[in-house]
Amino acid sequence: VQVVMPHFPQIVVSGENFKPKDARLDKYTDFAADILMADEGGKKLKGSIVRGSPFVYFTFEGMKAEIRFVEKGKLWYGNDNSDAIGFTVNHAHYAIFVGRGSKWKNLNSSTITLETQKDKNFLVVALLPDNKKTTLEFYKKYAYAFPTNTIVEWKYDRESSKVYTKFILQTEIKEGTNNKTLISLLPHHWRNNNKIKPLEYIYPSIRGKMKLIEGNEFSVEYVYHGILPWLPNVG
What we know:
Layout (H helix, E strand, L loop, with lengths): L10 E5 L6 E8 L2 E7 L5 E7 L4 E7 L3 E5 L4 E4 L6 E6 L2 E7 L4 E3 L5 E5 L6 E7 L4 H8 L4 E13 L4 E12 L8 E4 L1 H4 L11 E2 L6 E5 L2 E7 L12
Antiparallel strand pairs: 1-6, 2-3, 3-4, 4-5, 5-12, 6-11, 7-8, 8-9, 9-12, 10-11, 13-14, 14-18, 15-17, 16-17
């Protein structure tokens, strides 16, 4: 009756000497959530996750950010002064995007540290579909549009028996000028949908191929066939 996907962590985002008490829901909107962790000394780490987004967004207070590889990662993009690094861990490809002026330490070790400018205490982790430099640079254009709100709007047209649904993602720019983001859609979002323009990038999932689109909203349309008012009595 259900499919349970085991979770095998490959990287851990934390902070230097950071031992949070717990993880708490800080904010939630229609298809996103902010998770806040804090320790006794006032250090804080917040992660923002959006359903369908290839990015996870982090902000931190009172500490240097720290990324730990559960298995040894192989660096294939960036250096100590880069505002983006690309690496592979156990066949999964990642990028981390940071503010300009940030500095990395121990890039070739199992634990790397990030030192940021005071007004740029953030980082963004992206799961990439491949380990090409052009892919990382494409994702970088959208990495700094942090989510602030997600909205699902819908309406039902009784005459045509159609349900129209719009998904909206509002953002705040952390760096640069681009406020658009990337969203990966499940098969029931992109199949027979002429309102979207999928990009070339695809993610596998247990529900089928997920296709990536550019932008801050998308719409789907379905015919509503009604529901059974009774269920058959089969004993």
